[in-house]
């Protein structure tokens, strides 16, 4: 297999990732501009309501592979940030 065929296979995947990231950023920008934080719901469809909220939590499983030291460091960082 030559290098050119490897690059062709990566191209479509990279394009899909780039489009997904652009859509994600665009929808987040729309939400920030159009919705009031923690405000009333926006009825997008009869069965879908949108609320703008923010997740300020942290996953304590994030550094689980580091054992107790990693989780203690994460707990310390989350408390300092407040």
Q: What's the helix count?
A: 2
Number of strands: 2
Largest beta-sheet characterization: 2 strands, antiparallel
Give the ordered list of helices and strands: HEEH
**Level of helix content?**
55-70%
Gyration radius from CA atoms, angstroms: 20 Å
For the biggest β-sheet, the strand order reads 1-2
Label the overall shape: flat
Question: What is the SS-derived class?
Answer: mainly alpha
Low-confidence sequence ranges: none
Mean pLDDT across all residues, rounded?
A: 80
**In total, how many domains does the architecture comprise?**
2
What proportion of the residues form beta strands (DSSP E)? Answer: 5-15%
Distance between the termini: 53 Å
């Amino acid at each position: 297999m030559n290098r050119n065929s490897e690059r062709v296979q990566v191209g479509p995947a990279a394009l899909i990732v780039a489009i997904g990231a652009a859509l994600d950023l665009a929808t987040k920008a729309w939400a920030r501009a159009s919705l009031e934080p923690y405000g009333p719901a926006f009825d997008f469809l009869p069965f879908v309501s949108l609320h703008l909220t923010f997740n300020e939590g942290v996953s304590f499983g994030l550094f689980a592979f580091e054992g107790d030291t990693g989780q203690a460091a994460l707990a310390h960082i989350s408390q300092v940030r407040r």
